[in-house]
Amino acid sequence: MLVSKRRFKAEPLLFHSFNYAIMLLIVVVTMYPFLNTLAVSFNVGTDTTRGGIYLLPRVWTFENYEAVFVTGHVAHAFWMSVARTVIGTVLGVYLTAMLAYTVSRNEYMFRKPITLIFVLTMYFSAGLIPSYFLIKDLHLLNHFMVYILPGLISAFNMLVIRTYIRTLPESLIESVKIDGGGDFRVFVSVILPLCKPVLATIALFIAVGQWNSWFDTFLYASSKQNLSTLQFELIKLLSSTTNSNASSSLSAGVKQGGAEGLITPLSIRAAITIVASLPILVVYPFLQKHFVAGLQLGSVKE
């Protein structure tokens, strides 16, 4: 009897110890690439080429980050990326939620055809050339709205929000309509407050997509420097460091004292990665609670 009780008490301890060991291993595997990139970004470029940089820089320097911001265009491009991310996310979430509420109503007779049209866009695309001519005919070339309008509504995001709305009690919507409220009042007073988890999830998806986007700048706004985004400027900077001549000229503009401080493609790539990912890493903790709740959408059926 005594042996069985000890065994019973030891089993949870072994189980939790095994779980903690596995989770610690996952954390190390997940965090190491980012910490290694951070260490390389603060290490002298020519010293990095020797290898052996793991979690801490061997020779500290800020020259890699100075090289990223030395051109003068990066600061303006940063605020351009912030503007397109904020405006695109707010409008995208609001209009997508409004469309999702519309197609979720059973009394709306066109809900099925409209849903089908949006679903077809997930499987079929006209292609790059027709899209370019469409943007041109809409007079959006070299215009800020080219960052906002083309991706304003996503079919996938609309379906996710629609599914969440259908889980809400119908009695809440009916109570507002009994009091004389219309669909817009229902949407603002009931749908938006109760859909915070899924809206936060969709907002994070849209914000990450807007922040990381650079190809639309390359296609539609590359001829206007004042419309250049941070990601596009970093892509140009990264491509300019792929040859030794460009690296030497870039290093010369960052008050180098000798060959030891040479900016290398590896070091500048690490600095670019940190600069591009840092804003999203700052925002994510504030949305994590709603993000996890949104991902659990549909996992429990009652």
UniProtKB/TrEMBL annotation:
Q: Which UniProt keywords apply?
A: Cell membrane, Membrane, Transmembrane, Transmembrane helix, Transport
Q: Which InterPro entries match?
A: MetI-like, MetI-like_sf
Q: Which domain of life is it from?
A: Bacteria
Extract one GO cellular component term from the record: plasma membrane
**Topology within the bilayer:** Multi-pass membrane protein
| Gene Ontology process terms (BP) | transmembrane transport
Using the UniProt record, give the first listed, main subcellular location: membrane
In terms of SUPFAM superfamilies, this protein maps to: MetI-like
- Could you tell me where this protein is found in the cell? Cell membrane
The protein, known as: Sugar ABC transporter permease
